[in-house]
Design a protein that fits this description.
The chain is α/β, with parallel strands linked by helices. It has one domain: NAD(P)-binding Rossmann-like Domain (Rossmann fold, 3-Layer(aba) Sandwich). The protein has eight helices and seven strands. A seven-stranded parallel beta sheet has the order 3-2-1-4-5-6-7, with helices on both faces. The longest helix has 26 residues. The chain is globular.
Length: 262
């Protein structure tokens, strides 16, 4: 794995919980933090899903939608490590379902996972961080789906929009001890990309629509997360860092017939 920099970011020895840290974007975040000297703690459903290189890290099995289980997990981390310096709220996602076809119960579950669960994790972590001399930092992994239409994943997009708004409020309520920020990720190529974009040709076609010519990698997201957790971002709180390769080309440019359309 390559990171953008092996420079000292002030993360050596920092204990950082990464929810959903066993695979996909979360695994990339875990690997970046480890490369930078942090002590990642992985939260997931089942340790059997861990890649071989991730088995060295502490693992807690926890359903982050269960507030009591989340509190027990945070207590367990502090019991083992003595502190909790950072949290990455990465667990989330949604299957494709058109709003007209999906039940209200389905939408509720998506909001639980992508909005209420990160709040439960953040609350439990904040209770610990407020008692620590150096406080702590929380980074939510959000999505561009919360900042533009999200057809087929409308509840997910709405939850991510809520998560980013929630982040700004928590940053005010929990300052100055705890910083809270969001990484707003665009399309990321992971082992499950085919579920969203199809075969290799589909993945490549989606990447070609992005100004930088490719989807993000999990490491790209991990680098952004590491920055926001680090002392380099010590005066950054209540902010969103967008990691989307330049965004999406407006559709009207392809439809326009004017000579200056690009």
């Amino acid at each position: 794995m390559q990171t953008q920099s092996q420079a000292e970011l002030g993360l050596v020895g920092k204990v950082v919980l990464v929810t959903g840290g066993a695979r996909g974007v979360g695994a990339g975040i875990t690997r970046v933090l480890s490369c930078l000297g942090a002590r990642p703690v992985i939260c997931g459903r089942n340790a059997d899903s861990l890649a071989d290189d991730l088995r060295e890290f502490d693992f807690f099995s926890c359903d982050v939608r269960d507030a009591a289980a989340v509190e027990a997990m945070v207590d367990g981390i502090v019991g083992r490590a003595g502190r909790l310096d950072g949290v990455v709220n990465n667990a989330g996602g949604s299957p494709f379902a058109l709003a007209a076809d999906a039940s209200v119960r389905f939408a509720s579950k998506i909001v639980d996972l992508n909005l209420l669960a990160p709040l439960a994790v953040a609350k439990a972590a904040n209770a610990v961080m407020q008692t620590q001399p150096d406080g702590g930092a929380i980074v939510n992994v959000s999505s561009v789906s919360g900042h533009r239409p999200s057809p087929g994943t409308s509840a997910y997009g709405a939850a991510k929009a809520g998560l980013d708004n929630l982040m700004t409020s928590l940053a005010v309520e929990w300052a100055p001890k705890v910083r809270v920020n969001s990484v707003v990720a665009g399309p990321v190529e992971t082992e499950q990309s085919h579920l969203h974009y199809g075969d290799d040709a589909g993945v490549a076609a989606v990447g070609a629509t992005i100004p930088l010519g490719r989807m993000a990698t999990p490491v790209d997201v991990g680098n952004a997360v590491a920055f926001l957790l680090s002392p380099l971002a010590g005066y950054i709180s209540g902010s969103t860092l967008t990691v989307h390769g330049g965004g999406e080309k407006p559709a009207f440019l392809d439809a326009a017939t004017a000579g200056n359309a690009v």
